[in-house]
Amino acid sequence: MRWPTVLLGFLAVALAQDSSTESSQSGTTTDGTVVSVTTPVAIPSGTYQEFTTTITLSDGDSSVIASTTHYNGTMTASNQTAVTTTSDSLTLLVGGGGGGTTVIGNNSMNATATTTGTATNTPVVNTRPCNNYPEFCTRKYSNITMVATHNSPFIRKNSVAANQALDVTTQLNDGVRTLQFQTHYVNGTMYLCHTTCQLLDAGTLEEYLTDVNKWMRRNPYDVVTFIIGNFDYVSPENFTTPIYNSGLKDLIYTPTKVPMALNDWPTLSEMILKQKRAVFFMDYQANQTAHPWLMDQFSQVWETPFSPTDPAFPCTQQRPPGLSKADAKNRMYMANHNLNLQLNLGSLSMLIPNTAQLDETNAVNGSGSLGEMAQECNTTWGRPPNFLLVDYYNYGNFNGSVFEVAAQMNNVTYDRKCCGKTSGALREVSVAGMSTVLLVAVGVQMVMSAF
Ligand SMILES: *[C@@H]1O[C@H](CO)[C@@H](O)[C@H](O)[C@H]1NC(C)=O
Ligand SMILES: *[C@@H]1O[C@H](CO)[C@@H](O)[C@H](O)[C@H]1NC(C)=O
Ligand SMILES: *[C@@H]1O[C@H](CO)[C@@H](O)[C@H](O)[C@H]1NC(C)=O
Ligand SMILES: *[C@@H]1O[C@H](CO)[C@@H](O)[C@H](O)[C@H]1NC(C)=O
Ligand SMILES: *[C@@H]1O[C@H](CO)[C@@H](O)[C@H](O)[C@H]1NC(C)=O
Ligand SMILES: *[C@@H]1O[C@H](CO)[C@@H](O)[C@H](O)[C@H]1NC(C)=O
Ligand SMILES: *[C@@H]1O[C@H](CO)[C@@H](O)[C@H](O)[C@H]1NC(C)=O
Ligand SMILES: *[C@@H]1O[C@H](CO)[C@@H](O)[C@H](O)[C@H]1NC(C)=O
Ligand SMILES: *[C@@H]1O[C@H](CO)[C@@H](O)[C@H](O)[C@H]1NC(C)=O
Ligand SMILES: *[C@@H]1O[C@H](CO)[C@@H](O)[C@H](O)[C@H]1NC(C)=O
Ligand SMILES: *[C@@H]1O[C@H](CO)[C@@H](O)[C@H](O)[C@H]1NC(C)=O
Ligand SMILES: *[C@@H]1O[C@H](CO)[C@@H](O)[C@H](O)[C@H]1NC(C)=O
Questions:
Q1: pLDDT at 348
Q2: What domain range is 431 assigned to?
Q3: Cβ of 399 less than 6 Å from ligand 10
């Protein structure tokens, strides 16, 4: 999913670094573990911002968390109310202005009951909270299967190095809730580039996250996950500034311990009520002592083989190396399901998305399909993957088939329209396309020989 898209001399160095960086931080944060959430018995009136909930921590401390301190902006115009009912488990209620109160997060309710009830003048975009499925509100973050876009920012038209056709805002509108991307340290700044910035430069990390922040403010009931590929193995301090500057800072979720096992995760309701709903993982060089919220991905999320060229998509555990089966079963995991083609051009060998087979790769069923892999992983591990990492998420055996697979894993119904306007970036890798590859490849070789 991150390197190696170009396998050159530096790969050996990268591999060496790979094994030296697998150790994870230990220790826990000072937050304590959330054991119960006590909420007012009576349904309070007032706006969402005024709502408070009492969180009881395992060390006996209680803290009152007011949504007001975390969220300000478009919500003020929306006349939303959010209350909770049950005493020891969170159930989120959202009332739309003028309409009746709508209950969400109660599994015995009709999910569709929540699609109405938002005031017409509200700038809040989504009317189906908890990542489009009210059923998820009471479920733990670790008990949900999400579609994850591989190399989410790489949407360059007519580039074989692109991985997606639609921009990040469209991805989020369509239901993607996990964004994976590769970062490069250039000129003292974190850029989003595919392999090198000469090959595909999608701008700075800060610009990209600023767009995501805008979306998250308009969609206050959604939890979004970021999986950062730290391609250059730079220190985590290089990431904190662009993340904070993007505006996401107050939404960042901080785990209660390291590592987070399956049962340690909060429910989506808890994350949404506390407005701590931006979840950050980084594959290498995370330091949770210095930045508890910038989580070491492989301490909490393992992966099946990455950058696969094998359409069999085995469900075997690959990264981190050496994880015991017992630990793997007690962690979240990601199914890498982006099929690659290996291009060999002289000394350059690179992997690019195999777009010609997307109708099979992203399909609900059939040989080499996402659906087949998800089923197989569920059989192997006793639970479905948490993340389904795909290229060109909007293609499949029908538009939106990747979301159908996630819905099947989640035991919910996918009935949304997919997908946003296409930018037309998808092109099959054909002989005609090879000249583009070749031109790009020559550029890369020049860059590489300068290393
Ligand atoms: C919150 O909203 C109010 C009213 O629009 C505004 O005056 C205030 O500056 C905002 N605060 C922040 C931190 O954005
Ligand atoms: C907010 O909702 C309440 C209760 O439904 C309603 O009485 C009030 O008029 C609404 N206010 C606005 C500004 O829409
Ligand atoms: C869920 O909502 C239904 C209908 O309002 C109610 O009868 C039921 O008791 C609720 N269940 C829980 C667990 O809150
Ligand atoms: C659930 O939806 C079905 C079909 O729309 C409807 O008949 C039923 O009354 C709904 N139940 C509740 C509790 O809203
Ligand atoms: C959620 O947990 C239940 C019970 O352990 C399990 O059956 C289900 O497969 C899980 N779903 C996901 C998506 O993790
Ligand atoms: C880094 O700076 C050099 C020199 O100014 C410039 O040519 C290059 O385009 C910059 N790189 C990026 C990714 O902006
Ligand atoms: C970013 O990473 C580079 C390379 O590891 C390092 O030299 C630099 O000090 C880092 N910058 C910050 C702000 O940590
Ligand atoms: C992680 O951060 C802590 C606290 O800032 C620091 O003492 C430690 O050296 C860092 N670890 C690494 C590997 O940089
Ligand atoms: C997928 O499932 C459908 C409906 O069950 C079936 O008609 C179709 O043949 C299957 N496709 C493949 C490739 O297995
Ligand atoms: C999906 O959407 C694109 C763009 O609108 C379209 O070209 C394609 O044929 C659609 N169908 C499938 C099966 O992906
Ligand atoms: C996943 O496997 C469990 C049994 O291990 C089964 O109960 C469940 O239905 C499976 N989920 C799906 C979506 O097939
Ligand atoms: C899936 O949902 C249905 C209806 O909502 C329920 O009856 C069934 O038990 C669920 N299956 C699992 C494996 O949770």
A1: 56
A2: 3-56+136-436
A3: yes
Average pLDDT of the chain, as a whole number: 71
Residue 119 near ligand 2, beta carbon < 6 Å: yes
Lowest pLDDT segment from 12-16, 145-149, 172-176, 397-401: 12-16
Vertex 150: Cα angle to 439 and 386 (nearest 5): 165
Whether residue 37 contacts residue 55, with contact meaning beta carbons closer than 8 Å, is answered with yes
CA distances from 395 to 334, 356, 390, 423 (A): 20, 11, 10, 13
Give the model's pLDDT for residue 76. 21
Contacts of residue 101, Cβ cutoff 8 Å, sequence gap at least 6: 43, 81, 93, 94, 95, 117
Strand ranges inside 145-246, DSSP E: 146-149, 178-186, 189-193, 201-204, 224-230
Out of 103, 104, 108, 110, give the residue to mutate to test ligand 4, the one with the largest number of ligand atoms within 8 Å of its CB: 110
Determine if ligand 1 sits within 6 Å of the CB of residue 72. yes
User: Is residue 131 included in any domain, yes or no?
Assistant: no
Query: Which CATH number fits the domain that encloses residue 426?
Result: 3.20.20.190
Ligand nearest to the CA of 108: 3
Evaluate if residue 235 carries a pLDDT over 90: yes
- Within a domain: residue 116? no
- Measured from the CB, is residue 408 less than 6 Å from ligand 11? yes
Residue nearest ligand 9's atom 13 by CA: 366
Tell me, yes or no, if the pTM score tops 0.85: no
Give the active site residues. Answer: 150, 194
